[in-house]
Amino acid sequence: MSTRSRFTDEDEQRERQSLTEEERKRIAADLCGIGTGMAGLTVSSAMETSDDSSAIRSNFWTPASQEQQLQQRPPPTAEFERSMNLLNADLGAIPEQEKEGYLLAMLHCPDRVFGGWREELILEMQEEGTFDAKKMAKKFVDYWQWRYEAFGEDLAFKPMTLAGAMAEDLGGMASFCMYRISPCKDTAGRAVMVVAPRRWIKSLYPPHLQKRAFWYLLECLVQDPDTRKNGAVIIADGRGIHPGMFDHKYVRWAAGMLYRFPVQWKAVHCVNLNPFVRHIALPCFKFFSKKDTRNRILIHSGKTCTQTLAQYRLPLSCLPAELNLGGTVEMNCVKWIQDRYAIEGFGAPNASRAPTNSFDSTTVGEYDAEPTRKRCRTEISRLPLPPAPSFPARDFSTGDMRVGAAKHCGMSQSSASSAHFAFTKEEEVLLSNTTGRKTDERMSRAVVLCLRDPKIDRTEALKIAGFKYDKSKKVQEKKLLDSEGVSLRQRKNQLRRRLKQIAEKQKEDGNTRNTIESRNH
Fold first, then answer.
1. How open is the CA angle 341-343-187, to the nearest 5 degrees?
2. How far apart are CA 356 and CA 333, in angstroms?
3. How many CB atoms lie within 10 A of CB 393?
């Protein structure tokens, strides 16, 4: 890794010397949890209480279905409608090429573009007098663009729930996701996210799935009004990290993801650091992070580790037991998933199908690959997967915005509501006869495009079908990757195999017909 991708000790010293007195006070207040609302506690009482009795149980799992939340919404005020009109105007002023994800969202799920926590955020900013339509428009565009790139067109516009966009990733997320939300907040009422990279086995859980899991957990955080108000802290566990598992590109993406959601990261506490993490991985993360995050990173080590953590609102009652620091919080991934089902409106899972926590271990990185695969398949089959409900939601989009989105995507206004690629019956038969399992809908579109126009460029067919590759980058096809980490060469080879299978099938069917006809004669 280049030294240019590291934030050196000299850089850190210069940055700290440049901090103003006001910035220093704000950093100190954030680290100590002063002025965050305290989730019902006064600042003085929270400062005085740092023992185990001060732990605040997380309210992420309070059962409240989406249908109930919609029924409890107050009617929109005139001020809210005015703000939405300003926001729509600023969104319309952004060039179309810069808001592809947002336009597709307006096409596929217009009721969710401004719904949920995004609507609540606008209302909260109005109450605080901090609403800025132009900045909010840019944030909305960035949010949907990153979501589109992380999930792809097939999943990005589904409900961001365990039964929606995350339905196929549950087993891997429970076993290999290095991000988890603690069931216990710190004594300042801030959410706690635990990061343990040693849980990640790339061969079983590729980077694009890790990105989706991180995105979903950030969605869970921002849905909590107390977290939007009080902020959150990160506990990063450095055990088990070595050069072979370090992913420079992923670190850059993850550092940027911290700013895509309205969550204030008050502190990043690093524990159990080895020399590689301290001198290579952490400086790389600082390099890609913003100034506010860099100055809130604390390293805890030695015999005073638990004492310093307690000073920053993380006593033993708030620390995960798996850190081996004397903490008492159990990180049960399966229970977390079950409780999320209740929050997302599916009710409590069937007790007879409730999965065990046999795979939730701090030594997951030591498991053999094949037993781990079997365990994932078993746990996925045990987890309840109810269909995603369709609750009514407010739609603040205008007809002009939907027509513009359809026009940008090359569709007519009449077909904008469905936004599906239409296959003929003959094409459906060809596709079904050449594969015995469910395939990527985008690859099926590319196959049909090549059948309709044999002279079409394979790369162009893949792009039209929905695969995203930036051809402006002058790199080889085997190194040009999409958001899922698959190279352009692999996609083209897969397309070539599908076309070859269809040609062989057509030839075989033709020979069979000729044989039957000759016998009849």
1. 120
2. 10
3. 18
Strands 184-185 and 56-57: antiparallel
Task: Give, in degrees to the nearest 5, the angle at Cα 342 between 339 and 346.
Answer: 135
Among 481, 500, 501, residue whose Cα is nearest residue 491: 481
What is the distance between the alpha carbons of residues 74 and 244, in angstroms, rounded to a whole number? 53
| Burial of 142 per CB tally in 10 Å (0-12, 13-18, 19+) | middle
pLDDT attached to residue 307: 93
Helical pair 399-408 and 100-108, crossing angle rounded to 10 deg? 120
Nearest CA-CA partner of 162 in 484, 392, 389, 385: 385
Q: In the prediction, which pLDDT does 62 show? A: 42
Distance of alpha carbon 121 from alpha carbon 118, whole angstroms: 5
Burial-class residue 254 by CB neighbours within 10 Å (0-12, 13-18, 19+). buried
Among 276, 253, 256, 277, CA closest to 265? 256
Nearest alpha carbon to residue 436 among 504, 494, 501: 501
**Other residues' Cβ atoms within 10 Å of the Cβ of residue 483:** 20
Is-contact 358 375, C-beta < 8 A? yes
Q: In what order do the strands lie in the sheet with 179-181?
A: 179-181, 191-195, 232-237, 265-271, 297-300
Residue 6, both tokens:
């590291």
**Residues whose CB is less than 8 angstroms from the CB of residue 167 and which lie 6 or more positions away in sequence, other chains included:** 385, 388
Calculated CA dihedral for residues 367, 370, 373, 379, nearest 10 degrees: -70
Q: What is the DSSP letter of 203?
A: T
Position 421 scores a pLDDT of 56
**Are the beta carbons of 270 and 300 closer than 8 angstroms?**
yes
What's the one-letter identity of residue 316?
L
Angstrom distance (rounded) from CA 421 to CA 406:
13
Q: At residue 121, what is the residue type?
A: L
**Helices and strands per DSSP (H, E), number in the chain:** 24, 7
Phi, psi for residue 464 in degrees, rounded to 5: -65, -35
Q: What is the mean pLDDT of each run of 10 residues along the chain (521 residues)?
A: 72 92 93 62 35 47 42 65 86 88 88 81 83 88 91 90 88 90 94 94 90 93 89 94 87 88 92 93 92 94 91 94 93 89 67 35 35 43 40 40 46 38 69 63 85 82 81 75 82 87 78 54 51
